[in-house]
Automatic annotation (TrEMBL):
Domain of life: Bacteria
SMART domains listed in its UniProt record: HTH_MARR
Keyword terms of this UniProt record: DNA-binding, Transcription, Transcription regulation
Protein name (database record): MarR family transcriptional regulator
A Pfam family this chain is assigned to: MarR_2
SUPFAM superfamilies per UniProt: Winged helix' DNA-binding domain
Domain HTH marR-type residues, every copy: 19-149
Amino acid sequence: MTATDQTESTSTELPAPEENDFATRLAVAIGRINRRIRPTRDGISHGLISALGSVVRVGEIRPGDLARLEAVAAPTMTRLVAVLEERGLVTRRPDPTDGRSFFVVATDAGVDAIRRARFERAERVAALLSTLPPEQLAAVTAAIDGLETAAQTALTQR
């Protein structure tokens, strides 16, 4: 089987999303917005910001639990934690019940980095939304509760 044949057989296994399909349009819009609002001032990658944000939100957490929360492999999280620690954004605290394990805890600098990243993202979202006509802005505003619920549901299903 050639590479073309493999591509063709794979593409026939999945239904093609409809251009006007709500979920497809929403996924594309969220992806585009997300790429445009990623924080860049501190030079912290999206993966680092996500992991650090989870540590700030949850509090002290074991690296394995953080990996599950972030839906990444344990070795990936080990690397992320090492980089965050090297930058002074997290610290390790020994696990009093397991001498082989430790907790990851955000430092004050880590909390500040998340606050700056969130502020920067909010600024960028506000700039994007400021171009919308009032009726579209009202529709986006009305959808926030549902989007927050969907986001929370996604977190609890991991």
